[in-house]
TrEMBL record, chain C:
Its main location: membrane. This is ABC transporter permease. InterPro entries: ABC_transp_permease (IPR001851). The keyword Transmembrane applies. It comes from Ignisphaera aggregans.
Amino acid sequence: MMMRKPFIEVVEIYKKFGDVIALNGVSLEIYPGEILAVLGENGSGKSTLAKILYGLYFPDKGYIKVDDVVTVFSSPAEAKNRGIFLVSQRPQLVDDMSVLENVALFLNTSPSRDLKKKLEVTLRDLGMAIDVDRGVYTLSYTEKQFIDLVKALITQPRLLIVDEAATYLPRELKLKFLDIIKKFAARGGSVMYITHKILEAIEMGDRFIVLRKGDVVGVFEKGVDVTTIRRAMFGSEEYLTTFKRSPKKITHESFALSVENLIVFDEHGKPSVNDVSLNVRSGELISIVGIAGNGQKELGEAIAGLRKAARGRIMLNDNEITHAPASERIKKGLIYVPEDPFREGVAMGLTVAENVKLFSQSKVSRELLDALIKKLDVNPSNPFINVAKLSGGNIQKVSLARLLLTTPKVVVAYSPTRMLDERSKTLTLSILQRLAESGSAVLLLSEDIEEVLHISTRLGVMVSGKIVRFFETPDLESCREDIEKVMVHA
Amino acid sequence: MPKVAIVKRELSKIATALAKVLVILLGLLLAATLTSIATGNTLKLISITLFQSFTNLNVFVYISTLLPTAVGLSLAFSANAWNLGAEGQLVFGAIGATFIALFTPLGRQEIIAPIAALIFASFLGALWALPAALLKMFRGINEALTTLLMNFIAYYVANYLVKGPWRGRTVYGYPTTDMIPIESRIPTAPGYSFSWYVVVACIAIAVLLYLFLYRTRVGIALRALGSSIHFVELSGLSSKKLFLIAFLISGALAGFAGGVKILVYHKKLVEGPIVGGGYGFTSIMVSWLGGLNPLFVIPASYYTAALYILSFGLQIGSAAVGDALSSTIVGFLLALILLADFLTRYRIVIRFR
Amino acid sequence: MLVEVVKIISDPLVVALVLWVLGDIFVERSGVINLALDGIITAAIATAFVSTQNFGYLISLLITVTITLAFASLFMIFINILHAYHVLTGLALNILFYGLSALIGLRFQQSPSITTLNLNSLTLASISILTVALTWLILYKTSIGTAIRACGFNPRAAEHSGVKVWRIRFLASVIGYIAVGIGSYIYATVYRGGWSQYTGRGYGFLAITLAMASTWHPLLSYPITLAFGYLYTSIYSLQLLYGIPPDVINAIPYIASITIVTIVYSTPLHKKLATPRALGEVYFREERAA
C-alpha cells in the first residue's frame, strides 16, 4: 500500500486563534484505501485540522496537496469538489428543511422527483426507513447522523473525514456506522478517523497519528499497543480517571429536586421530553444518559428554566418552580452548567473577571478571583483579559466557576466535560462529586456513558424523551452492556 | 487562482482606537477632496471650513442632542436591544417638555419648570420605546423594524399637534406652538444657542452610564446580554428585565435630548421632522463610532457635531444641493466607520497557493 | 367588489409595492436584514426619473436596474465581506443613498415631471402576478432557491453542505434587486411621473414590514400587500369624506404595518411557516462553536 501515492498530503499546517496556537505545523498524508486514525485529547487541535481540510478554517501557514496539486481550501465547496467530506459530531443539516431538500442542497440540484427516487433507493439499500419529505427536525440524532453520512456517500467522495461522529453512539449503532466507513475504505476511499478514544482508534485505524497541543507527537503503524498511544497522547502525565463512588449516606429523606411527569416541546413543537419523573436527594449524584438528541439536553434546560415546561411539575426543596424564570431558580440555589461554553457558559465579550462577577450575587474580591482561577487551573491566569482569548477548554473552566462561589442546593449539568481534556475532565467530575458529598443534589445529563459510569450512584437511561430504566448498583461498570442495550432499544 | 479568506484578528484596545481615528481622518480628507471637486471650491477653502468646523463652539449645540441620545443607545446596543427609534423618542421628549412648559402651571415656576419638563420628556421618550420592547418580549417581533416605524408615527403626532390642538395663538398660521415661558427655558451661553448646564449634564450622564455599564453587576450583565441571553439567565439575572431596562433608558435619554432641544434651542414645539432633524438616526452611528462605550461616545459626538457644522459650511449655492451633498458625505463617513470596524476585527488573507 | 379587486391588482403603486416586497423577500430569505432597501429605492426612483427624461423609457429601465444592482452590490460587500452588522449597514447606506438620490435627481433632471408611461391594467396585473409566481418557483423549486433559504435558516449548516454563503447572498440580492429596480421604475414612470427631492423615501421600510408580516412567503405576501394597498389607496378618500386631519391619515400605514405584524405573530400561523431564523445574524465562517 505504501508504494502508492497518497491521495492527500497535509504540509506544515499552522493555525492560531487569538493567542492560542491550535495547530503548530502539522504534516501528514493519507493513502487511498487507508483509514488514518487521528488521536488526541480535546483541545489538541484535531477538529481544527479536520475543519481546515474541509475548507471551514483557513490555515495561517502550510498547504494541502491533493492529486499533486498544491492548494488550500477557502470553502467547503472547494473541498467537496475535490472529493473531500467531513462528518462531524453534530450533524450539519438544515433543520427547517426536508431530508430531500438537504440532500438536494448538498448535491447542488433542485429537489426533484428523480432525486427523491434515487435517495429512497439508497436509503432502502442501507436498511433505513426514513420518509425523505419529513423535516429534518423530526429526525432523531442518529437518523440525522446517518443521513449526513449517506448524503456524502452518494457523491462517492475520495476522502471522508469522520470527526468524533460515532464516538458517543452506543456499541450496536456505532458498529453499523463504522461498518459503512470500513466498506468505504475497502472500496479504495481514504478515511481520516478522528477520535480521542484509543480503543476505538485501534479498532478502526490502519495507521495512527497522535496530536498534542497542536503538534504531531507520534506516528504509529498497525499493531501499536494502547500504552504507547496513551503515552504519546498525555506525555509523561498520567491521570487517574477512576472514581470512588461514595457509599450512600443520604441523610435527607426529602427530595431536593423532583420532576413530575414533565413534558417539554422543542422548537418545532415535537415533545422532546415526554412524561419524565425523577427525584434527587441532597448528597446524591444521579446521571441520565442517552444517545444525543433523546431529550437529555431539553430536560436539563427545562429544569434550569431555559425552556418552557408544557406539562408536569418541577419542585426545588418542595417549592414549585415549574414556571419560574431561570434567573429566579438560580437565585434559589439551582445551578445549571450548560454544554456549550461559547454561547451559554460565558459571555464572550467580557473579561474573565466580569464573567465570574456575574455568577456571584455578592461582591467578588480579587483574592477570591485568583483563588478560583488557581483552583480551576485556568490558563492564562490573568483575570482581566477577554474570555474570547482563551482556548475552548479554559473557557469551559471559567464557566465552571459558577459552582464554586456558593454551595448550591441543586446542580444540573449537561455534558459538562465534552470540551475538556482528560485532566480538566477529571477535575470537573471531581468538583461535581465533591459537591454531592458536601450535600448538593447533583443531576448529570450526558451523551457519553464514560462520563457518567464511574461517578453516579444511580443512572437512568433516556430514550425518545422518556427515562426508560434506572440502574442502581454499586458497580455500574458491570451493567455497561445492559445500559447500552437499553439506550438503543427502548 | 489566489485563495482569499477573511480571518479574525485581535488588536489591542489602543491599536483599535488608533486605527479608527486614522480611517476617520482619511475619510475627512477624502470627503474634503470630493467636495472641492463637486462644488468647485479650492481644497484650501474646504480645509479652512473643515478646521473652523472643529473649533466652532456651536458644536455644543449638536453635542447636547447627540451625546445623551447616543449614550443611551450604546447601552441598548450593548444589550442587543436594537432600538432604532431614538428619532421618535426624541420627538416625544420634545412633546413632553412642551406640554409641561406650555400647558401646566409648572411651566411658570423658575428652576422647577425646566427640571420637571426634562423629567417628563424622559418619561415620554421611554414610553414611546415601550411598545416595541413589549412586542419583542412577548411576541418576538423584531424590535428594529417596529422602532423604525414608530419614528414616522411620532413625526405625524407632532405635526398633528402643531397644526391642530396645540397651534399657537400668535404664530400667524405657522405650524408651531406658542413660545414656552421664559421661566421654563434653560439659559444659554451668551451669543450661542446651547447651554453650559446641559453640556455639563450630558457629560455627567456619559460618565455615570460608563460607571454603570462597567462597574456594576447589572451593567456588566447588560453587556453580557449582547453575547448570550442564556448565559445571563444562568447567572441569575432576568434577561427580559435587563432588555427592558436597556430599552427604557435609551428611550428616556432620547426623550431627554428632545426636551433639551425645546428648552434650549427651539423654545417652542415645531413639526416632527424639524424637531427630530435626523439626530436620532445619526446618534445610532455615533454610539457605534464610540464603540458602545459611553466615555468614547463623548469624542464621537464631538466629531459628528463638527461634521454637522461642516455640512452647513458646505451649503454654498442651492440649499437643496447642499443638503444632498452633506447627506452623501455623512453617509459616506458612516460607512467608513463600518469599514474601520472591519479592519480592526478582521484581516483578509490572500494566498497564491 | 370584483371591480375593486381588479383596480387594486392593477394599481401601479400597488404593483411597485408588490415588486419591492418580493425583492425584499429574496434578500431576507438569504438571512440579510434589508434596511438599505429604503435608500436604494429612493435612489432607483430618482435614476428612473432622470434617465427616462434623458434617454426614453426603454433605456431608462436598463439603467435603473443596473444602478439598483450596483447599489445593492455595495450593500452586499458590507454584509458579506466586511461582516458589518446588517442594521447598521442599512442605516448608514440609507443616508448615503438618500444623498445620492438627490444629487442624481438635481443634477440631471430637465423638468419636474415626465409623461407617465401608459400600461394597461392587464399588463400591470400580469407583471405582479408573474413575479409572485416566479419568486415562489425560484425559492422553492430550484437549487438556487434551496440554497438561498438554507442560508436564511442556518448559514453554518448551509456552508457545511458546500454552499458558499457569501455568494448565495450576493445572488439572492441580485435577483431581489432586479425586482426592486423594476418596481422603482414602475413607480417613477407609470405611477408618479414626477420627482422632487427624496421622492419614494419610506416605501422601503413599508416593504420590509409587509415582507415580515407575510413571514417572508411570496404567496402570502401578495394578498397581504393587496390588502394593505387597498387600505393605503382608499385612506385619502376617508380624508375627504370625514375630514380626518392629513397627519393622522399619514400615520395610518405605519400603525397598520405594526398592527398586521402583531396580529400575524400572535396567531399560531407564523410558527407553522418556516421563517428565516438566522435573519440579521452576522455570519462568520470561522466563528468558534462547541
